Amino acid sequence: MTPLSRRAFGGAALTALLAGCGGVGTDRPAPVHPEGTHHGTPGAEGTPQASPSGTGDAPRPLRRSVPVRLRIPAIGVDTPLLSLGLAPDGTVQVPPVTAHDRAGWYRHSPTPGQRGPSVILGHVTVGSYGNGVFRHLDRLRTGERIVARLENGTQAEFAVTTTRTVAKAHFPTEDVYGNVDRPELRLITCGGLRDGHGYRDNVIVFATVSSTGP
User: Where is this region: Disordered (predicted)?
Assistant: First the structure.
């Protein structure tokens, strides 16, 4: 694994990276501190800003409910969602490395359909098991659908606005975790070239809510 990286944002140390992805080919996030994340509501951190991912009116936000499934038809993803918290060392938990790889929602972020950036992480590779659930994340294009099903039976549908591949050293912390004024989604995995320490880049999908309901 590569050394973990930290960035300061809003007076709190925030993790922004999926560092590592080396060794057995897994994705390892750097530390994320819940007190530094932003849930899109006014408060001590300031007023929510307009999203960098898109513009326009959005459907009414949903109440908080744990996401249980994620579908991305364009790249064949249909995965149950794990709930990810923090490990004892302050890093974000990641889905276990198994033959049946699953993505995970970071539970200190908003739930999909709530106002703010909901964060979901997944592996691009899972060691000897091969490809991870987000292996084709970099193929997503503007307008393609992402559907999150929630525990209470509702769902939030999102449209991709941007797919970005960024060097881990230049991870766009504020764009990913910063306040937004409507429900949005961030999907994150590793990508780019691979060296002896793992993947050099992160792939980040930004998406804006397009509909909410049963």
Answer: 26-65
Q: Does the predicted TM-score (pTM) go above 0.85?
A: no
Residue 139's domain spans which residues? Answer: 7-41+65-213
Determine the residue type at 45.
E
Residue 18: CATH number of its domain: 2.40.260.10
With cut-offs at 50, 70 and 90, classify the pLDDT of residue 57.
Answer: low
Does some domain include residue 48? no
Total of domains in the chain: 1
The predicted-structure confidence for 4-27, as pLDDT tens digits, reads as follows 223 322 222 233 334 334 323 334
Closest listed residue to residue 29, CA positions, set 177, 197, 188:
188
Cα gap 97→13, rounded to integer Å: 27
CA distance 99 to 209: 31
Q: Which residues pair with 92 in a beta bridge?
A: 86
Identify whether the C-beta of residue 156 lies closer than 8 Å to the C-beta of residue 148.
yes
Residue with tokens 């004024």: 181
The Cα–Cα gap between 26 and 42 comes to: 36
CA distance 137 to 184: 17
Segment 82-98 shows an average pLDDT of 83
Q: What is the amino acid identity at position 145?
A: R
